[in-house]
């Protein structure tokens, strides 16, 4: 269950051309797993290289939240449970979803749901202080 005073951030990664519907389905599943079903996240967060990906932009718009992004360098400095050689080769950081969620949630963030995958997207959920 989501802490009552927590802000919820969803980190997302995506392959080129991912449809918004796929992103939204993955986000909904991850939020439910985090005990935050039905809550609107504070933001979707990704790596700068994917900030203009139409499926991510549309997913954020449909959720009514901003799509924020961080540079690969900032994301690569965030300690996460796993890393991906594919992400490193594609966007310059070994982790996008988990690192983006944790970075956006700020100091004291808690990773509520680690990286989850669909065919063309990844997401993770982090709680930050309110």
Strand content: 25-35%
Record the strand order, biggest sheet: 3-2-1-5-4
Oligomer: single chain
Instruction: Give the integer mean of the pLDDT values.
Output: 91
Distance between the termini: 15 Å
Output the number of helix runs: 5
User: In which range does the helix fraction lie?
Assistant: 25-40%
Order of helices and strands: EHEHEHHHEE
The total count of strands amounts to 5
Supply Rg: 13 Å
Structural class: alpha/beta
The backbone outline, from C-alpha atoms, is globular
Explain the overall architecture.
- The protein is α/β, with parallel strands linked by helices and 130 residues long.
- It is 35% helix and 25% strand.
- It is built from five helices and five strands.
- A five-stranded mixed β-sheet has the order 3-2-1-5-4.
- Helix 1 packs across helix 2.
Give a quick summary of the entry:
The protein is of the alpha/beta class.
What's the helix and strand layout?
Layout lengths: L6 E8 L5 H14 L9 E5 L6 H10 L3 E4 L1 H5 L8 H7 L5 H9 L4 E8 L3 E8 L2
Helix pairs in contact: 1-2
Task: Name a few traits of the molecule.
130 residues, five-stranded mixed β-sheet
